[in-house]
Specification:
InterPro entries: EF-4, EFG_III/V, EFG_V-like, G_TR_CS, LepA_C_sf, LepA_CTD, LepA_IV, P-loop_NTPase. It is found in: Mitochondrion inner membrane. Keywords: GTP-binding, Hydrolase, Membrane, Mitochondrion, Mitochondrion inner membrane, Nucleotide-binding, Protein biosynthesis. This protein has 679 residues and is of the alpha+beta class. It folds into 5 domains: 178 residues, Rossmann fold (3-Layer(aba) Sandwich), CATH 3.40.50; 85 residues, Elongation Factor Tu (Ef-tu), domain 3 (Beta Barrel), CATH 2.40.30.10; 72 residues, Elongation Factor G (Translational Gtpase), domain 3 (Alpha-Beta Plaits); 116 residues, 2-Layer Sandwich (Alpha-Beta Plaits); 111 residues, Alpha-Beta Plaits (2-Layer Sandwich). The structure holds guanosine-5'-triphosphate (GTP).
Length: 679
Amino acid sequence: MMRLLQTKVFRIIVDHGCRCKLENTHKSIVKEYSSILNHRKNTTVSTLYRRSCRFYSLEASDKQAAASEREKFENVPAELIRNFSIIAHVDHGKSTLADRLLEITGTMKADPSNKQVLDRLQVEKDRGITVKAQSVSIWHKSGDKEYLLNLIDTPGHVDFSNEVFRSLSACQGVLLLVDANQGVQAQTVANFYLAFSKDLVILPVLNKIDLKNAEPEVVANQLQALFDIDPSDVLKISAKTGQGVPALLEAIIGRIPAPQTDRDLPLRALIYDSWFDRYKGAIVVVYLQTGQIRVGDHICSAHTGIEYTVKSVGVLRPHQQPTNKLSGGQVGYIQCNMRTTQEAHIGDTLYLKSQPVTDVEQLTPAKPMVFAGVFPLDQSQNPVLRTAIEKLTLNDPAVSVKQDTSPALGQGWRLGFLGLLHMEVFNQRLEQEHNAHAIITAPSVTYKLKIKGKKNQELMGGETIYISNPAHWPHPQIIEEMSEPIVLATIITPDDYLGKIMSLCNERRGIQQNISNIDNKRIMLQFVFPLNEIIVNFHDGLKAISSGFASFDYEDAGYSPTNLVKLSILLNGSAVDELSIIVHHSKVDFEGRALCRKLVEIIPRQMFQIAIQATVNGKIIARETLKAYRKDVTAKLYGGDVTRRTKLLKQQAEGKKKMKMIANIQIPRDTFIEILKKE
Ligand SMILES: Nc1nc2c(ncn2[C@@H]2O[C@H](COP(=O)(O)OP(=O)(O)OP(=O)(O)O)[C@@H](O)[C@H]2O)c(=O)[nH]1
C-alpha cells in the first residue's frame, strides 16, 4: 500500500511537469513529503494530490519571490544605496549591532540564539572576537522607499585594523560605536582618525545604554573633547535589546550619503576582500565604483592584466545570493575562475576587456610587523601545509609569505603577521579550516643593519640589510649600525592606574611623548616603543595591571638606532638557532635567565639529562639542568587487561607526535612561542 501511495505521489508530481526535479532529487522529495506520507493511512490519493499541488504552488511562489528580489538588487538606483562599516574598539558591540540590524530589517528571523551571526569562522566563535570583516546586504523600508544597506562588520582588535582599512574603501560612512559604559578607548581613537582621513561621514553611536553603569552623557562629552563631535549628533542605542536601533537605521539613510557613481562609465570594480572556494576557486568581494558587470562579461585585472570570464555575480546576505548583474555603487561578489591566490589581489581593480581603464585606485597593502617561521611537523606534510597557507592567505592577505629553511625544522616558510594575535589566529585557522598542523617559531620583528666598509662574508660592505630571522643575524664584528622598528602607541586609562602603567612602559623601553586628560577620570598617554618590546605580552600585562580598563593601540613610526645582541640557546652543547632571540643589550642577563627557566618548564624530562644554556657571542650567561626521567605511563597498572596498557602506550605515542626532535631532544611544538611568554 505504502509503495502504491508513494508511487501515486510521485506520479502526481510528474504529471505536474516536475519530472526533472523528481528524478534529480528523489531523496529530498521523499524527505519533504515525509509528513504527507506519515499520514498515509488516513489520506486518500486525492488529498495527497491537493497537498502536493499546494506544495508546488508554494515553491513556485518562493521562486517568484526570489526572482523579484533578484530584480530588486539588479535595478536598485544608486540614490537608494547606503554603504557603511561598523567600527569600534574590541567588544563595544559591533557584531551584536549587526545582528539587530539584520533582525529589524527582516533579513534574519528574530531569535535569541542569533548571536554575532556575522562572526562565521570557528576561530571567531571560539575566541568571541571578530577577525574578518564581513559584508552583508540588507533591505530597509523608510517612508515609501526601500533602501539597500550594505553593511560591513569589522574586527576591533588592533592586529586586524587592516581589515577595517580595506572595508572603508567600499563605504561612504561609518558607525563609530562606543560602549557607553567603558567610554572612548584606544581603538576608538585610531578608528575615528582612519575614517576621518578617508573623508567618510561618521555617525557617532553610544551602545549598551541598557547597562546600569552606562554614562552616555559623559561619553558624549569625551567624543566632543577628543573629536569635536556635537553631543546632539550622538545616537544612543542598546544593540542587545534593540532600543534606538530603528532610529539609527533612519539616521543611516538620512546622514550617510549615497555612493557617487556613474553606471554609464566603464566598469571599475575595486577588490576589497576575497576567499577561496574549493570548487570555484578564488571569489572576490568588490565595490563597483562605476559601470556594471554581468555574468558572461570578459574582464581584466589592472594588477596582473589576466583576463577572465565572469561566471557568477551576486550579493552577500551574508550567504551568496546570485544576481545577473551588479551596478555602480553596489557591493557584491564576483566568481570568475581565479585559480591562484596571487590573482585575487586586494586593492586591484577589475575592468571590462572592451573598455580598459587607467589611473586605478590602489589600496596600500598592509605592512606585516611580526615575522615567524612556519614549518610542517614532518616534511611529508609540506605539500598539505603549503596548500593550506596559500588558501588562507587569500582570505587573509595581510600575511606575507616567503620560503625558508631551518637546519632543525627543514623546509618551511617565513610568514609576516600584523601582530601576535593575528599569528595565533592564523595558526588556529590553519588547523581548524585546513587540518594543517604547523610548528611556529618565536616571533621576531624586522631589524635594519648596516654592514661595515669592505665586503664581509656574503654581504657587501656598506650594504643595508633587513633581518627578521634571528638565525640570520650576522657576526657583531661586521655590523656598523643597527636600528629597530618603533611604534607610536596610544594608551587610554582611568587615572588610578597611571603609576603602574608608567612603570610597565618604562620596563618596555617606552619613551613618553604626550599625556592629556579625556575627562576628569580618564587619561590618554602616548609612548614610543620598540616594536619587539610590545609584540608579546604587553597588551595582556596592561590589561592585568589596570583590571582590564586600560586600552592600547599602536601605529608604525619607522626605525630608531639601537644596540641589540643575539641570545642563543644550547641544548646539551648543540646550538638551536630556532630558539635564539634578539634582545636589547641592557636586558641580556635577565632574558637569558628567563629563557633557560622557561625551557626547563616546557621541555619534558627525557631519558637523559639536558643542559640548557643561554649564550651571547659565545659566552655562557645562564644555565639550567633538566633532570633525566622516563615517564612510564603504565607504571600504575598492576597486571590487568593488556588492551588498557596498549591504549596508554598509544596515547603516549600520540603525544610524542606533537614533539619535534631537535639535537636529539624531544621538544613540544609550541615551545618556540611559549618561551617568549613572560612569567
Ligand atoms: N548589555 C549589553 N551588552 C551588549 C550590548 N551590545 C553588545 N553587548 C555585549 O558585548 C559583548 C561584545 O559584543 P560583540 O558584538 O561581540 O562586540 P564586537 O565589537 O563585535 O567585538 P569584536 O568584534 O571582537 O571587536 C557581547 O557579550 C555582547 O553580548 C548592549 O547593547 N548591551
